[in-house]
């Protein structure tokens, strides 16, 4: 492998081949950048993680109480949402639900920068499973504690409510799907969702039908590759 580029792992999954690669970005002074691809689709980069961090910051800022808080993160990725959540001293437990075993393995094998931090934190536990199926189930997210409820659920899997990775995810973003999710939150608990697209009116209506204080926050960050400002959306809703 070139010193400028290395494919660290590539494995088949039910959604296609997922790969992790590391490269040096010379336009950024030789900074190491970690990237994830699913098939030929680019999923995420360690260079763009402001919005993933803001998902945790905004979601937990809206969560009331001094703790300890029980939190679910849907979608592990490169770990930025989960690592940010663990910086909140109120968090007593963090359950990370990830559908693809190789992604969990990258963290357990310390192939990604935040891997050791997450794998070795006693508050943190990985669950290999389909977040959307678990959200719609009676028993919920924790196989060790069926019907367990949480103070916050932070979701970063699909590109947007209207731009899903799998058509099977689409019903989740409808009122009935969100109602099922809300059953896994304590009263007053927070649901926060990352989206790469601007706020979608239809989803805001659906969110507001099941959650109080439903709103969309725009997150802004620089994109040096295109020399412009980029944006993402964080949706927030509170269970009544």
Q: Which parts are unreliable, with pLDDT below 50 for 5 consecutive residues or more?
A: none
Distance between the termini: 54 Å
Largest sheet: 7 strands, mixed
Element-level helix/strand string = EEEEHEHEHHEHEHEHEE
CATH topology assignment of the largest domain: Rossmann fold
Kindly name the structural category. alpha/beta
Shape: globular
Average residue-wise pLDDT: 93
Percent helix: 10-25%
Count, helices = 7
Describe this structure in words.
The radius of gyration is 17 Å and the shape is globular. The strands form two sheets. It has a seven-stranded mixed beta sheet with strand order 7-6-5-8-9-11-10. It has a four-stranded antiparallel beta sheet with strand order 1-2-3-4, covered by helices on one side. Helix 6 crosses helix 7. It folds into two domains: 5-44; 49-238, Vaccinia Virus protein VP39 (Rossmann fold), CATH 3.40.50.150. Strand 1 and strand 2 form a beta hairpin. By secondary structure, the chain is α/β, with parallel strands linked by helices. The mean pLDDT is 93. The protein has helices spanning 50-61, 80-86, 101-108, 115-119, 131-136, 175-182, 201-210; strands at residues 5-13, 16-25, 31-38, 41-45, 69-74, 91-98, 124-128, 150-155, 185-195, 212-223, 228-238.
